[in-house]
Specification:
There is one protein chain. By secondary structure, the protein is of the alpha+beta class. About 50% of the residues lie in helices and about 15% in strands. The chain has 26 helices and 18 strands. Strands 1, 2, 3, 9, 10, 11 and 12 form a seven-stranded mixed β-sheet that branches. Strands 15-17-18-16 form a four-stranded antiparallel β-sheet. Strand 9 and strand 10 form a beta hairpin. The two termini are about 50 Å apart.
Length: about 700
């Protein structure tokens, strides 16, 4: 068993490239070696800004030998009437590398064919790798590729060296104009090299001791965190580790050295969010707080070398951060002198989206929509405390004001957040401040929904306004494009309604949003078609949400098919149906109610008079249909009461109770009787049943 090591040395790769590169290189190598039938025990892949490293340990020395049978032409085509081989037989033998005499007859389902046995495999690991490695490297994908020099080969960044060692031997190949070898380069300052690697087993030691780099991303992270925590603890603080930034910084360095810097305490007058954004966005540095959660006048950054004079480097970082903080303080003071009124006036000169008017127009629509939402009984009933309609409307009117503030102009990631900070500072009230702060939540499938009712309502209104306007213009997401993030907006609405428990009609929400637009907009679709398309789109996003949360496809489709206008209720119905599906008799129940649904659906497709769901007792003839009528009369009031109380689990119990009676009806009664009046009466019995159970789920969607 052998040890193979591959190192691809390049100019600095962007940090965001490293994790996908590690994953793809690992997957491509595993697939290529699997196809080549070359076994290995362990694979380890890591990447730094200047190198990608792969270790294969326990690599088989050669492919196993195995015998294969290759089918050739049919027996009739291979030999003539006198038994002489044809050109087809001779060509087949030549292609398989065997003598004509070695061919034999193989019987198959399709007839008799000539065949040949041949031994395959047996290639050495060296021969396999020299073909596999360059093809794998050439196939690696990157968000951006570049060419360099006079060659045509493209890679993420110019490639400078390749180390490819199988134990102590070089695996010879070339990628572009770079030939493989045993020479690596190290840290540009601490161990530039070049250094020869005698054996694959020596690679890690050469990198660590001579090249002075930390090849493992996890080891770099541990070094950064341990060193940062120790430096912060020495001054009585703790580092505010931002996981996304930590991953980025880990990918920016090969020789991590944490450094604690200071800044003037006068800048602590700036909001915490501004200070952290200045450090994290521009300086790739981390904030430090004390034991009570207050920011300290310090920051932690990570160097890519151990400087000879730490003091000089520290002052350089502090000088750059000070300039950033001076800018932030200027924007802060300028914004405090301005205020919401001039900002809201300025929004009339900021375009929202082409024909849909300005941001000022959008805020006036949000003002009306938020006021309407706050007054809905299905919303108010689920509020932790009453939200005054005027506060909700005020939040809508001021929603986008901070977009024209100087602070957000410099730090666009603070939109909404700065609106909330300024609203508190300028006396707009806590409801308004919370709404402005949370209006962009949820920002994705894993981010939290707004924690306050004011924030949730503004988020709903904002997303519904954008969806209605874009759909009216025909800007509907396709499989490849969603430039206005409409899928995320629809998902956000669904999550808020589910997680906040609001009971409102999404159709009415979208209708209100669409009707809030001013006259004169040249819509691609009229209101009715726009809302129909939007409703279908929203149903798809809700279905996707249920599926990503582990819902069974058939059950989700059954629930969505029964109605999704009340999103919270749809979620509860799905939970009840999932619980019911785990009971032993569910498949029988589903099959029975599916039969009912299919009969009624077929009737509807025939275009006949609509069934009322009311039956005539005098037309009941068979005991089974009389029993069904009695059961329906007995369950109707109970069903309606449980439905009104959202007791969906108990509604499923009703399904258990009535199913045997329905089965008896189908077994003992001819539904499609020749007498039209009797037939209609029996169909109305089924319609009465479906009118209620069909509210819970569309059983025709179930395949049991």
């Amino acid at each position: 068993m052998s040890h193979f090591v591959l190192e691809i040395g390049t100019e600095e790769l962007p940090s965001r490239f490293l994790s996908p590169l590690e994953k793809e290189l690992s997957e491509r190598f595993a697939a290529a070696l699997g196809e080549a039938d070359l076994h290995f025990d362990e694979m380890a892949v890591s990447a730094t800004p200047r190198r990608t490293l792969l270790h294969l340990r326990g690599l088989a020395d050669m492919q196993p030998l195995r015998e294969e049978v290759a089918l050739g032409p049919s027996l009739k085509a291979a030999y003539d009437a006198e038994g002489k081989p044809s050109k087809a037989a001779m060509g087949f033998a030549r292609g398989q590398g065997v003598e004509l005499s070695a061919l034999f007859t193989q019987e198959t389902e399709k007839g008799s064919y000539v065949a040949a046995r041949k031994t395959v495999g047996g290639a050495s690991a060296q021969d396999v790798l020299k073909n596999v490695v360059p093809s794998v490297i050439s196939a690696l994908s990157f968000p951006k590729r570049m060419r360099w020099g006079s060659g045509s080969f493209a890679y993420a960044r110019p490639m400078h060296w390749i180390v490819a060692l199988l134990d102590g031997e070089v695996v010879p190949f070339a990628v572009g104009n770079v030939k493989s070898g045993r020479v690596t380069c190290g840290h540009r300052v601490h161990g530039p090299g070049p250094f020869e690697v005698a054996h694959a087993d020596d690679m890690d030691a050469v990198l660590a001791e001579k090249c002075r780099i930390v090849a493992s991303g996890m080891a770099r992270r541990e070094t950064i965190v341990a060193g940062g925590d120790a430096r912060a603890a020495a001054i009585g603080g703790r580092v505010l580790w931002n996981d996304a930034l930590l991953s980025e910084v880990e990918g920016l360095v090969e020789h991590p050295v944490p450094l604690l810097g200071d800044f003037d305490p006068v800048f602590l007058e700036l909001p915490r969010e501004v200070l952290l954004t200045s450090m994290e966005t521009h300086q790739k540095s981390f904030g430090v707080e004390d034991g009570e959660g207050r920011l300290m006048p310090h920051f932690l950054t990570v160097l890519n070398l151990a400087p000879e004079d730490v003091g000089v480097v520290k002052k350089g970082w502090e000088r750059v951060l000070r300039a950033r903080l001076e800018d932030a303080r200027f924007y802060w003071n300028a914004d405090l002198k301005a205020g919401f009124e001039p900002w809201m006036a300025s929004l009339d000169h900021v375009i929202f989206l082409g024909p849909l008017g300005s941001m000022g127009d959008k805020c006036r629509r949000l003002e009306r929509l938020c006021g309407w939402l706050a007054g809905q009984a299905g919303v108010a009933a689920h509020m932790a405390e009453p939200l005054p309609v005027e506060d909700a409307a005020k939040a809508g009117r001021a929603a986008k004001a901070d977009l024209v503030s100087q602070m957000v102009g410099e730090f666009d990631t603070l939109q909404g957040i700065m609106g909330g900070i300024y609203a508190r500072r300028m006396g707009l009230g806590e409801h308004v401040a919370a709404a402005l702060e949370e209006q962009y939540l949820p920002a994705g499938p894993d981010s939290p929904v707004p924690s306050t009712d004011a924030g949730a309502l503004l988020s709903l209104a904002d997303k519904a306004d954008t969806l209605a306007g874009c759909f009216g213009l025909g800007n509907i997401p396709t499989g490849a494009a969603d430039p206005y993030a409409l899928r995320r907006a629809a998902l956000g609405i669904a999550r808020i309604l589910l997680e906040r428990g609001y009971r409102i009609s999404v159709r009415e929400l979208f209708a209100r949003a669409f009707s809030s637009y001013a006259d004169g907009i040249r819509w691609k679709f009229g209101q009715e078609e726009t809302l129909a398309r939007l409703d279908e789109f929203f149903a798809g996003r809700l279905k996707n949400l249920f599926l990503t949360r582990g819902g069974d496809t058939l059950l989700v489709e059954a629930v969505i098919g029964a109605g999704h206008d009340d999103v919270w209720a749809a979620g509860r119905r799905l939970a009840a149906l999932e619980a019911e599906s785990r009971k032993p008799g569910f498949a029988d129940n589903a099959q029975t109610f599916k039969r009912v649904a299919n009969i009624i659906r077929k009737r509807q497709k025939e275009g006949k008079r609509e069934l009322s769901g009311e039956w005539n007792e005098g037309l009941l003839q068979e005991d089974a249909e009389k029993a069904l009528a009695a059961a329906l009369s007995g369950m109707s009031a109970r069903f309606d009461a449980l439905w009104a109380a959202d007791r969906f689990d108990e509604l499923m119990t009703l399904m258990d109770d009535v199913r045997p009676i329905v089965d008896s009806f189908f077994n003992g009664v001819m539904v499609m009787a020749e007498d039209e009046a009797v037939r209609e009466n029996r169909l109305n019995l089924l319609q009465a049943l479906l009118a209620r159970m069909g509210k819970v789920a569309d059983f025709s969607a179930l395949q049991m």
